[in-house]
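Lab manual, section 2.4: Encoding a predicted structure.

Procedure: take the sequence of the chain (120 residues), apply the prediction step described in section 2.3, and record the output as structure tokens. A sample record is shown.
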Amino acid sequence: MGEPKKVFVFDDNTDILELCTIILEDAGYEVKTSSTSNQIVDQVMAYMPDVIFMDNWLPDVGGIDATRELKAHDELKRIPVIYFTANNDVKSLAAQAGADGYLSKPFDIQELENIIQRHL
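Recorded output:
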């Protein structure tokens, strides 16, 4: 089975982070969470995840700018970023950010697992 795949979740809502951690660890992933996308490049470089989940509403640096920063970075731009937010405009926000996919909140567990599988 090799190394577990690593997922990094950015969300300022600690309940969501806990929920994602429980679901994803249960599904066999290694999970790191952060409630801010400040120094996004440093945060992601330190963990080098296989997939990133990015919330739209993050303090200081929002999800769109954080995603753009990652996509402009030579070493990190290949990591799929899944935009996830409760905003009805999730599809257009993801497109603006240059994200690789999106998931609306509230999401169900199956959807969460499916989208990760799709991007790994």
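Check your result against the sample. The first strand starts at residue 6 and ends at 10.
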